[in-house]
Amino acid sequence: MPLSDGCNHVTMLTKDLDRFVEFYTRIFDAELRFGELEGDLRHVMIDVGGGFCLHPFELPTQDAHAEGLPDIFQRGHIDHFALDFVDAEDFETARRRLFEAGATTGQVRDFGMIKVLSFTDPDHMECEIALWKEGKPLTMAQSTVEPYEVG
Fold it and tell me: What value does the mean pLDDT take over residues 30-46?
């Protein structure tokens, strides 16, 4: 059994902390744990579920990494993160909200034992939501794509 209870937080940079917070609290019903919103170094901890937090910093001088890079495996030390869902209905609610926000096409890739939806956050960071399910693991070539149907 692992000594750790899971991931605590991921720290990243943002160009606009207020926009970042609004996106994650609106789409995922995330909650602010704490933050420093005044002064030169602004940052918050946003609990996105299960105690896992996003820890965005807005620096007084913008850094090249404050806006995400689009190409997979060219994004720096952290390429992307995935938020875990255990309930299919909650997954679909997040899918709909992300689609309505213009953050995704809504397309889901089914890898047999996990369904994954990619989205782009306000800083252009590529992220995912993931839903574990019954099934055998499939490779990328074996996986299927489920388009989003509005309505």
Answer: 85
